[in-house]
Design a protein that fits this description.
By secondary structure, the chain is mainly β. The chain contains no helices and 13 strands. A hairpin with a 6-residue loop joins strand 9 and strand 10.
C-alpha cells in the first residue's frame, strides 16, 4: 500500500512578530481510494505556546491535538475519515483507507495559548478518485500508426502505467 503525502512536517518557531501564522497546509490534491494519506500543517507560533491544532473537513472537526491536555489527541467521528492514532501527532494526521466520502475541503487551524488565544488557518481541497488503475500498453498499431496504444484506461481515474 502506498502512502500519499507531502513529506515530513516541521514546526517553525521564530521571533519577530506578534501574530501566529499557518505557513503551509500539506494535503495531497488527488489520491486513489483505499490509500493512506498524510496531512501536514506548517505554522509559526511567534513565541507563543500551542493551545491546540485542529483539522476539519468542511464544517466537521475530526482531529485535535492539545499539548497541555491530559488526553493530548482527540479524534472525532466523521464519515469517510479514519484517523490512524498510532501515526498521528502534533505534526501530522494520517488518514487510512480514504474513500470518496473522504474528499472535500480540509482546514488546519492553530490556536495559541493564554494570553492571546490568537488563531490562524488555511484551507485546501483533496479529491479522491477511483482505484489506482494500471493501463495495459498494447503493441498493436493505432489509427495514427503509433506502435503503442493505451487500453482499459478510464480518464477520471488516476492512471499508472505498466507495460504488458
Amino acid at each position: 500500500m502506498a502512502v500519499w503525502g507531502c513529506g515530513s512536517v516541521v514546526v517553525w518557531e521564530c521571533g519577530g512578530s506578534d501574530s501566529i501564522k499557518v505557513l503551509e497546509i500539506q494535503v495531497p490534491p488527488r489520491v486513489p481510494t483505499g490509500e493512506t494519506v498524510r496531512l501536514g500543517c506548517l505554522y509559526d507560533l511567534e513565541g507563543a505556546n500551542l493551545y491546540s491544532l485542529t483539522w476539519w473537513r468542511g464544517t466537521e472537526q475530526f482531529y485535535q491535538f492539545s499539548p497541555s491536555s491530559q488526553e493530548q489527541m482527540t479524534v472525532y467521528d466523521s464519515p469517510g475519515i479514519t484517523v490512524d492514532r498510532n501515526r498521528s501527532s502534533r505534526d501530522e494526521v494520517v488518514l487510512r483507507n480514504v474513500s470518496h466520502a473522504s474528499a472535500g475541503r480540509y482546514k488546519c487551524e492553530v490556536l495559541a495559548d493564554f494570553p492571546s488565544y490568537e488563531k490562524d488557518s488555511q484551507i485546501t481541497s483533496m479529491e479522491v478518485i477511483g482505484e489506482l488503475l494500471y493501463c495495459v500498453i498494447s503493441k498493436k498499431k493505432t489509427m495514427d500508426k503509433s506502435p503503442l496504444a493505451f487500453e482499459y484506461c478510464d480518464s477520471p481515474r488516476l492512471m499508472g502505467v505498466r507495460t504488458g
